[in-house]
C-alpha cells in the first residue's frame, strides 16, 4: 500500500510541508507514504506539450501517480484558492482524458494555514478540482488552522487535530485498499 503526498508549497520551511511530514507517523504499519518532490519541475500546462512526447517531468509525475494506491494533497491558501503549482500539477495529472492517473484515485485533502480559518477556501477548491479531474476526494477534508502553534518540533501538538488527521488517513488507507485494481 503506497500513498503519494503532494505539497502545494515549494518554499523552504513551508508549514504545509511540515504538516505533511507528520502524517507518516499516523499511518498503520505497513503503509508507505512519500512526498513527491518534482512538482516544481513541471512546466506550465500546455496542450501542445501534452502529446506522445510529453516532458520528462510530466512522465515521471504520472508514473508516480500510477504507482500510488492513494493520494494526500496538502495545500496552503493563496489569494483565496489553491496555489498555481498545485492546480498545474492536477491539470497535468488529469490527462490523458479517460485514462488519467487520477481516475478513481482516493485523495485525502488537507489545507494548512497560519490563520484561524485553516485555508478553508483552498480546501473547498481543492476538493472540487480533484473531483472534476477524476480523483475521489474523501469526505471530511481537514483544515489545520494556526499551524505554527499546531505543529511543534515536527509533531502535532493539538490532540483534536491529530485525531482528525489520523481518522482521515485511516479512511484513505481503507479507500486505497478497496480500490478496484486498474
Ligand atoms: C501569494 C500569497 C497569497 C496568500 N493568500 C492567502 C490567503 O488568501 N489566505 C490565507 O489564509 N493566507 C494567505 N497567504 C498566507 C499563507 O497562508 C502563508 O504564507 C502560508 O505560510 C503559506 O504556506 P506555506 O507555509 O506552506 O508556504 C498567502 C501567501 C502568499 C505568499
From TrEMBL:
This entry carries the following GO cellular component terms, namely: cytosol
The NADPH-dependent FMN reductase-like domain is annotated at 1-147
**One GO molecular-function entry:** FMN binding
Q: Which InterPro entries match?
A: Flavoprotein-like_sf (IPR029039), FMN_Rdtase-like_dom (IPR005025), NAD(P)H-dep_reductase (IPR050712)
Return the protein name.
Answer: NAD(P)H-dependent FMN reductase
Organism the protein comes from: Nocardioides scoriae
Amino acid at each position: 500500500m503506497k500513498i503519494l503526498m503532494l505539497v502545494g508549497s515549494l518554499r523552504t520551511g513551508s508549514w504545509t510541508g511540515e504538516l505533511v511530514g507528520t502524517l507518516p507517523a499516523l499511518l498503520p504499519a505497513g503503509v508507505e507514504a512519500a512526498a513527491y518532490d518534482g512538482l516544481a519541475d513541471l512546466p506550465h500546462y500546455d496542450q501542445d506539450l501534452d502529446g506522445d512526447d510529453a516532458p520528462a517531468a510530466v512522465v515521471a509525475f504520472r508514473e508516480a501517480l500510477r504507482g500510488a494506491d492513494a493520494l494526500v494533497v496538502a495545500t496552503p491558501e493563496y489569494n483565496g484558492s489553491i496555489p498555481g503549482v498545485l492546480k498545474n500539477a492536477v491539470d497535468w495529472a488529469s490527462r490523458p482524458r479517460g485514462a488519467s492517473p487520477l481516475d478513481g484515485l482516493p485523495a485525502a485533502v488537507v489545507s494548512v494555514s497560519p490563520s484561524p480559518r485553516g485555508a478553508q477556501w483552498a480546501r473547498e477548491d481543492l476538493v472540487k478540482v480533484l473531483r472534476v479531474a477524476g480523483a475521489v476526494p474523501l469526505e471530511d477534508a481537514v483544515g489545520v488552522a494556526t499551524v505554527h502553534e499546531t505543529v511543534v518540533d515536527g509533531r502535532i501538538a493539538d490532540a483534536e487535530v491529530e485525531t482528525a488527521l489520523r481518522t482521515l488517513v485511516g479512511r484513505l488507507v481503507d479507500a486505497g485498499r478497496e480500490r478496484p485494481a486498474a
